[in-house]
Structure formats: C-alpha cells, structure tokens
Amino acid sequence: MGEFARPEVAVFFFLAVGSLALFGFLAVATWSGSRASERIAYYENDMLKKLADSTEEGAKQAFEFLREQKRIEAHSRREGLKMGGLVTAAVGAALLVVPRGSIPMGPVLLASLIPLFIGIAMLVYVYAMASKEQP
Asked: According to a count of CB atoms within 10 Å of the terminal CB, is the N or C end of the chain lower?
C-alpha cells in the first residue's frame, strides 16, 4: 500500500486542502468586496464633483439628499450597534445563569463574562462615545 493509504495521512491532506480552499475563498471574497466599495466611493465622489460644478437648484437639493442619506446611515449603524450590544450582553448574562445546575461554575463563569463585557463595551461606545448626530 502507498503512503496515502494510511488514514492519518489522508485526513491530514484532506484538512490541508480544505483549509487552503477556505482561506483562498476568504481572500478572494475580501478582495472583491474591497473593489466594490472602491467603485462605489469613486462614483460617489465623481457625482459630488459634478454637483459641485453645477450651480442649479437641483444640485442643492441633491446635496441635501446626500446629507440626509449619510445621517440615516449613521443612525442605522448606531441602532445596529445598540442591538448587537444588547444581544451580546444578554448571551453573556444567560451563560452566567443557565448552566448553574449542571456544570462546575469556575471556568464557565469566567467564559460567560467575555460576551457580557463585549456587549457592555458596545453599549458604552454607542451611548457615550459615538457621534450624537440625529437624522
């Protein structure tokens, strides 16, 4: 029998090829996403340049519309952070309470503090440090 007939060698090659495929896919997906955001930013800046060169009333309305869109984006991003912080803090609190009867509490308690503190940090950021611009 050959070298690949041993199960541990076959598993190693399977995992190696799988991890290469996964990280290759992630690299291509990240690259294509950044290219798409570059194109969006380029066309947005091109449109703003053309609007700035124009002195018509429509250009002023377009600027106001773009400002309003940016305010709405910031507001929805802030609301998403609030929701994410609440959900993460709730998961951490649930992990403090739920396994109390079945698992020894030392390591579980410490592990459940991680999502709890992440959720609290997200909420502190949203309420204390994020910009307060309202739509």
From this structure: N
Separation CA 116–CA 30 (nearest Å): 29
Q: Nearest-CA neighbor of 66 among 47, 80, 79?
A: 47
What does the pLDDT look like over 56-100, one tens digit per residue?
A: 777 777 778 888 888 898 889 889 989 999 999 988 888 877 766
Buried b (16+ CB within 10 A) or exposed e, 28-65: eeeeeeeeeeeeeeeeeeeeeeebeeeeeeeeeebeee
Question: Can you tell me the distance from the alpha carbon of 34 to that of 82, in angstroms, rounded to the nearest whole number?
Answer: 26
The span from the first CA to the last CA of the chain, in angstroms, equals 70
Backbone angles phi, psi at 80, to 5 degrees: -65, -40
